[in-house]
């Protein structure tokens, strides 16, 4: 199955969106049904262990580029996520491992696979950001394969549900961006500095505006 | 998970049994109580092989939990014949060769009796629509339609001979023998060819 | 065929059901109404709730009543209960026309109108009819009761405005006793669910359409009103030409790129079917308008 | 119109054969008394459930059963390695055999539990035994399988591509076999000299049989006697006994297979599957009764599917419209492994039928069998013959169009003439008898074809599109003789066995090696035996489906039961009468040659008052007080009847449909079926078989089809998505018949089990294409869903618009982007 679309985020910049989408914490909080999304060493993940580890963890949403830089997605990095996809009474939890296979401002792509007790999926997706008149356009595409019970029994719902997950993800990203902007504006008033200006340099520096930086980190 | 004690009255006999919440009514009937006349044909609630009457209505017993049926009255195919006499629907199926392998037949007959209670004089089209919840892979349905027509005639004749009306006995609606079928059959929407 | 284990509670009052929902908030909990969407999903292993709360026997959720030109249908009425109610058929002709086409005989004997509406299956037969009937869904939760108009109830596929501890208690429908209501459906030959279904509720005076409400399910991920069709009907005489023209507007305001697209039918074909079945729903309305007595 | 059934009590004994009596099977079936496999309960019985592959094609990295084994109520869990353990009794092959070999066939291993690789979603990986069925399924969910997914293929043509992943190491390019029949050179010559040709590219889609009763088995083992009893949903218990004995390593004579009541088969219960073998093996291993019943989703993933052809075919005609050549190239989907009779279906049951009802001087057909990641494909009602009939009858429609001839006239012109029988085709079979014009004429009359074209014209003027479709089909059933079958690769004989036994009191039990599952054998066989013995119908009991009771047998499939099983009963009865005649002669003090037998009475020729009834003879035979010299007591006879040839039923089906081009919907105006199945033992049962067959054919034409995605995930995995026709999907059928006796068997019968399924699809497709003629639609792939029909019409303008040249039109629908896109099936 292939899905693709363009999501328009208003009143924001490519840099802001890039920064946001580079932040696993923001992504975790924007993905519907995502219990955790954390970096792991390799694709062989013990989810039971991770579940225990993550029960009491605290994750700070932030707009601070320094903090985000510490935890930003890295090309070649592996990430484990526990995702519950709810479709009415159907609520499988997928143990998912994602690998960022390409990340170069303003494009990112990843491959991943997830499994639940009787179903599994594989996907590869990519997105690229571009500026529009009043914000940013995120062009995304995903190729997904579904296996097992859901493929056999849930054929009718897979496509619309996948679309819904993406839609809710981006609208949640939009909300979080807005919150960050509000917070940033608050900071700006207090500091009387221009966070956007100073951020930009930082974004360039730590988030790998040039591809060569990110690959060796 | 707690087990539940339930009571089912099947074909006039009371049964007390203990079931897990997840036990489907059809399995309670078949595996616990031995009413194996009711068959299981699918798990998507489409084939109707498991149709029984639950408090006088035809339902798919694979889509009812046994706990939900606690206290209910159930009629299965084993209860159709009375005093050794076939129900007219049973005779209809035999006379019209309305069955071949017979697996769908109990459910088909339980659905048909429910249909005839609501509509004692259905057209062939109405019979086909009325049995849309039951699949048969053997007969091509034509002789099933014949069987239900045959049963309707038989029940009608029986009712006339008795000076009564099957609909009276069946649902107390007072409508007789399809003479004002509008009472129980809705006007066609039209356009729903299928 | 064999559901996973779960705990089962039977509620006898709405309040008890809400308490049970709250008590089991940490578990995956589902309300069990007629069970005709939930149990098949559980039997095939797609759905595996920890707790089921059976609300099928809650007395307050039953009954059909007319009050001040408003028809109230308790959420746990089975389809066959609603069809057996003269009041429902008189005051909610589009809704009952749609209910007639739900599932099959056995399903209608067991499935409930509230279960259907709360389940929000886009291919169900009721969302379009609920919209054209201007239905209000009354829900009750820990914070009391609230009323949600049908057009605000549905978010998308299986997604509604119902809160986690809320229960749909009844459906209120303003009387449409002076209207003709119809429902035309293209069922999937396998599942019987609607590839598209179109509900129409019209008032016609002397051959002229005074008001028109047209709604569809199956086509999009939730029920939709077909405003352009309605606009093309109002004030016109209900004839073949008007119907054809109006039906031609069925997809005008729908994003056809978002049409349901699956094994049963592509989005393009659903768009085509939507026009055809809008036409059929309206043609059926002509027939009924011509013989209003038959609708009773 | 419908045949009226008769109470057997109202039929004279002399008229019993051929009477439409009510079935004696029915009382048990309509009261719930009948016992199907899943109804069987045993003390201490455990339940089996199977963990199947989540993927269409994958390597098994790890199978962790520990969590399942630790569950309360789980008795044990087995994987592949457990079958081969040293303490495993017997030592079977644990692989499923193929029962039909071809010269080029690549036999591939088919383990009953997957070793390190799974090749379709139904492949069994592990098997759980638990105290109840719910628990068994819980435990299956707890098995953790680690897969390495491999590329999958589901289309047989794609499977043969160089860059497609191979399923089996010993089947290069996924080729299972290459096979051909006919004369390529002569056929090429025919095409070179042809004045006209018609061509088609088509897919005959994969179908899922959907017998209403899922497959099931209950096995119990007696350690003391080493007897292993298996009750299972079988169409051929003796064959299953033979095959299973090898698979699980249990001696054939200690293995009993009994088919209790069986809820439909349609081919799917012929084959030997892994599941039933596992049930038997586990019962023996655990020494406890074991039950397994497939869930419906399991049957969708494991029951052998049917059809699955991709075909290109061309018809050559001379300038007058005589067919001069036929060329067919088919790639057949065999699925992941070779099922029991899989190689025979797209070869000897397909290529040999391509001549249809026509006198075709040159035919060539080549078939390549391909392995793909779908369940094994094998016989499904019709098995090869519907595919052949579809090809030739679609071409007949296109050929007539190419010639500008009426489709009925074109067929009539090319029929094998009535006086040409026995007729040897160019594809290696000899048609026994036939009168094709007679069935066509009757069908045309029933369908009122004379007035149809006028109706069609008028309807078109009103913007309504009516179409008529013909199917003049031929069928071959009662595969025989065994010697020929052996030459063709069968690993079994194709005779049938029966035993007719008189009891001392004068009643009779007839045992037959066929195994009915809805066909009404208990009734029809009793009619045959009662007629042969001249005794009352109610005095004959029929026993089938139990290897302990019946001498031997080959089972029920391929419409063979009446022709081969019925004939075997005639032979046994005749042998019995021969013996009885000698006893009668002895008792009547006459020469056996002077004894006539009629109506159950032995009479001395010329002295009719010197007579003795056969029942009295039976009694004498058991008293044995006064028997002919050297004659053994008792009165029973066994026969192994091996027919001389196939029988060839035929007929004409006519569908009249109306198509709504706006919605793509079809309504039947009429469906006429005129079949010639030879003599009819019970016309009511014949009619029922035709009805059911037509319904399955209509199902194929309009509704059914297995759809897979590109990873070989079954998308039509339940009745929610795979449309098994409902009552309102099937037209009212008008049936008629003619009778042309088969000279090959003593009953003159031909077989009717598959006729409707073979006949119907092309009647419906031809009718739809005929209706859409104004839109210049040449072909619509099956199932002709509303969307496919709408797609075929969409964008095409009506009558007066420019039309393609006939030659281009004859290329079939695939040139058109709409139908081509549609025809590729549903991995969207």
TrEMBL record, chain A:
<dbReference type="InterPro" id="IPR010419">
    <property type="entry name" value="CO_DH_gsu"/>
</dbReference>
<dbReference type="Pfam" id="PF06240">
    <property type="entry name" value="COXG"/>
</dbReference>
<feature type="region of interest" description="Disordered">
    <location>
        <begin position="109"/>
        <end position="128"/>
    </location>
</feature>
<protein>
    <submittedName>
        <fullName>SRPBCC domain-containing protein</fullName>
    </submittedName>
</protein>
<feature type="compositionally biased region" description="Basic and acidic residues">
    <location>
        <begin position="197"/>
        <end position="207"/>
    </location>
</feature>
<feature type="region of interest" description="Disordered">
    <location>
        <begin position="180"/>
        <end position="217"/>
    </location>
</feature>
<dbReference type="InterPro" id="IPR023393">
    <property type="entry name" value="START-like_dom_sf"/>
</dbReference>
Automatic annotation (TrEMBL), chain B:
<dbReference type="GO" id="GO:0046872">
    <property type="term" value="F:metal ion binding"/>
</dbReference>
<dbReference type="InterPro" id="IPR001041">
    <property type="entry name" value="2Fe-2S_ferredoxin-type"/>
</dbReference>
<feature type="domain" description="2Fe-2S ferredoxin-type">
    <location>
        <begin position="4"/>
        <end position="80"/>
    </location>
</feature>
<dbReference type="Pfam" id="PF00111">
    <property type="entry name" value="Fer2"/>
</dbReference>
<keyword id="KW-0001">2Fe-2S</keyword>
<keyword id="KW-0479">Metal-binding</keyword>
<dbReference type="GO" id="GO:0016491">
    <property type="term" value="F:oxidoreductase activity"/>
</dbReference>
<feature type="compositionally biased region" description="Low complexity">
    <location>
        <begin position="170"/>
        <end position="181"/>
    </location>
</feature>
<dbReference type="Pfam" id="PF01799">
    <property type="entry name" value="Fer2_2"/>
</dbReference>
<dbReference type="GO" id="GO:0051537">
    <property type="term" value="F:2 iron, 2 sulfur cluster binding"/>
</dbReference>
<protein>
    <submittedName>
        <fullName>(2Fe-2S)-binding protein</fullName>
    </submittedName>
</protein>
<keyword id="KW-0411">Iron-sulfur</keyword>
TrEMBL record, chain C:
<protein>
    <submittedName>
        <fullName>Xanthine dehydrogenase family protein subunit M</fullName>
    </submittedName>
</protein>
<dbReference type="InterPro" id="IPR016166">
    <property type="entry name" value="FAD-bd_PCMH"/>
</dbReference>
<dbReference type="InterPro" id="IPR036683">
    <property type="entry name" value="CO_DH_flav_C_dom_sf"/>
</dbReference>
<keyword id="KW-0560">Oxidoreductase</keyword>
<keyword id="KW-0274">FAD</keyword>
<dbReference type="GO" id="GO:0071949">
    <property type="term" value="F:FAD binding"/>
</dbReference>
<dbReference type="InterPro" id="IPR016167">
    <property type="entry name" value="FAD-bd_PCMH_sub1"/>
</dbReference>
<dbReference type="GO" id="GO:0016491">
    <property type="term" value="F:oxidoreductase activity"/>
</dbReference>
<dbReference type="InterPro" id="IPR002346">
    <property type="entry name" value="Mopterin_DH_FAD-bd"/>
</dbReference>
<dbReference type="Pfam" id="PF03450">
    <property type="entry name" value="CO_deh_flav_C"/>
</dbReference>
<keyword id="KW-0285">Flavoprotein</keyword>
<feature type="domain" description="FAD-binding PCMH-type">
    <location>
        <begin position="1"/>
        <end position="178"/>
    </location>
</feature>
UniProtKB/TrEMBL annotation, chain D:
<dbReference type="InterPro" id="IPR000674">
    <property type="entry name" value="Ald_Oxase/Xan_DH_a/b"/>
</dbReference>
<feature type="region of interest" description="Disordered">
    <location>
        <begin position="792"/>
        <end position="828"/>
    </location>
</feature>
<dbReference type="InterPro" id="IPR037165">
    <property type="entry name" value="AldOxase/xan_DH_Mopterin-bd_sf"/>
</dbReference>
<keyword id="KW-0500">Molybdenum</keyword>
<keyword id="KW-0560">Oxidoreductase</keyword>
<dbReference type="Pfam" id="PF20256">
    <property type="entry name" value="MoCoBD_2"/>
</dbReference>
<dbReference type="GO" id="GO:0005506">
    <property type="term" value="F:iron ion binding"/>
</dbReference>
<feature type="domain" description="Aldehyde oxidase/xanthine dehydrogenase a/b hammerhead">
    <location>
        <begin position="31"/>
        <end position="151"/>
    </location>
</feature>
<dbReference type="InterPro" id="IPR008274">
    <property type="entry name" value="AldOxase/xan_DH_MoCoBD1"/>
</dbReference>
<dbReference type="Pfam" id="PF01315">
    <property type="entry name" value="Ald_Xan_dh_C"/>
</dbReference>
<dbReference type="GO" id="GO:0016491">
    <property type="term" value="F:oxidoreductase activity"/>
</dbReference>
<dbReference type="InterPro" id="IPR046867">
    <property type="entry name" value="AldOxase/xan_DH_MoCoBD2"/>
</dbReference>
